[in-house]
Amino acid sequence: ESKGHISVVLVGATGDLAKKYLWQGFFHLYANQVSSGHSFSFYGAALAGPEDGTPSMFQTLKGLTCLSGVTPDRCALLKDQFLKLSQYRQLKSAENYTVLDNEIEKLLKDEGLQEAGRLFYLSVPPFAYADIAKNINSTCRPMAGAWLRVVFEKPFGHDYEAAKKLAKELGMYFQEEEMYRVDHYLGKQAVAHILPFRHDNREFLDPIWNQHHVERVEIVLKETVSAKGRTSFYEKYGVIRDMMQNHLTEILLFVGMETPLTINSSKEVLQNKLRVFESLRKLDKESAVIGQYQNYSAEVTDELQETKGFKTLTPTFAGVLVHIDNLQWDGVPFILTSGKVLDERAGYVRILFKNGAFCLQSENGRKSENSQCKLKQIIFYVGHGDLKFPAILVSKNLFKPLMPALSWKEVTEYPDISLFGQPLSDYYIYSPVIETEAYTLLISHIFQAKHESFITTENLLASWSFWTPLLNSLANEYPRLYPGGAENKNLL
Ligand code: BG6
Question: Where in the numbering of this chain does the Glucose-6-phosphate dehydrogenase C-terminal domain appear (predicted)?
């Protein structure tokens, strides 16, 4: 990639996501790239005028932190440089975009810089996309030869038709390769490493990653929070749209897809991901259970009264049984579960291998204590729940894997807990050398144009076309209501 100047424009620069993660991610990007030969300018943009936007944005910037491993002196210097390169701009009218474009061009000219690209990160609600997209396309495209990347945050529609409409609209302004749709779970290190791990260890894994050796696959994202503060959104979505159509589906693809020949080819990875959709068995009502714990309605009741004034029947919990009907996965259940206000926060995908299957059954009602009865499993642990850090766990009785990647290390000291019936000493455990937030990883992947870490239009529509019939068939079903929440495990 040619070196040159990169302009980053963060639209929604004073919003929650920007404050919490995005500025931090751009700062890490800058810190990692500062000696790469690229130069940068960062524009934070929002609807507010400079008098309101500027102080609020700089308050966030002043609180930025460096990744572990950076000395305090170095960190202070980097932060100082980053602050100097960052400015607030109001982006409200079409004219504002013209002013911004002129400003970027003037900077390039005055400093004699070659333009490498422009990155627009849209951290705004989807109803605002079309207008912003139109302005970027008509006014803010970079010079010939430089790239344009435009990043969008979900939700991307609430069913197949809506997603298609939105995709069509954006397609009027941008080429497919200019768009990056974020699913932040693809930036969680354990999830981002499913494929590299499979690929690096393919000699061991390929022979057993199939129906002959896999008993079942569990994909679980349990939360303890409700939807407090965002009820008006969540009430329209519910758990299947909010979590399953995107996060859990993407994890399913990484486990179910054929190992690509090379993981450095976005194209091949994306193609293999898409191919999984072709083999997914159609879902019907029998494939799913939906529920709601009363703690959910108890927590959001104030907001519901304000907005609607009636009792909520939104499913906040779902368990869905998915099958990939191809030769590799014939008969293997993929069990997807997710919910809010549950007993614990935990996220993982767990691949259970056969011949440890009898361990799940109890003898005369008691679990066998037989030492041979050890589950063989590989777990990609997102990093909540008992094990706080992201990790890849491999049963020692399965095999000694290769290292997942250079940026992961073997963990030898760990909490005294057991996971899925095995003490931690029964696993090889790997964790990232540096733990990063999902957004930091994703922003670096945007910079590297790693499209496989984002949701392409085809992927998005294929996913919605898989989920929409189920959503339609459940539209008039009431979720089962369960008492309590935190203390409840009965659905899982
Ligand atoms: C979001 C959902 O995509 O993911 C939220 O809209 C959910 O409802 C969140 O709480 C969970 O993400 P994380 O990173 O907190 O596990």
Answer: 197-488
Q: Strand, helix or coil at 362? A: strand
What tokens appear for 411 in the block? Answer: 């963990």
Residue 410 has pLDDT above 90, yes or no: yes
Write down the pLDDT at residue 489: 45
Instruction: Return d(Cα 422, Cα 490) in angstroms, integer.
Output: 21
Bridging pattern class, strands 147-153 and 179-182: parallel
Mean pLDDT of 87-116: 97
Instruction: Name the packing angle between helices 457-474 and 266-279 (round to 10°).
Output: 20
* Run of H or E residues at 334: strand 334-339
Going by pLDDT thresholds of 50, 70 and 90, the confidence category of residue 490 is very low
Does the CB atom of residue 242 touch ligand 1 within 6 A?
A: yes
Long-range contact set of residues 203-207: C-beta below 8 Å, sequence gap at least 24: 204/399, 204/401, 204/402, 205/259, 206/259
**Active-site residue flag, 212:** no
Provide the pLDDT for residue 221: 96
Tell whether ligand 1 has an atom less than 6 A from the beta carbon of residue 183: no
Name the band, by pLDDT with cuts 50, 70 and 90, for residue 486.
very low
| 3 state DSSP class of 195 | helix
ipTM over 0.90: yes
Rounded to the nearest angstrom, the distance between the alpha carbon of 454 and the centre of ligand 1 is 16
Q: Which two tokens stand for residue 126?
A: 């989807």
| CB-CB neighbours of 124 under 10 Å | 21
244 Ramachandran zone, left/alpha/beta (phi>0; psi -120 to 50): alpha
The pLDDT, as a whole number, for residue 372 is 47
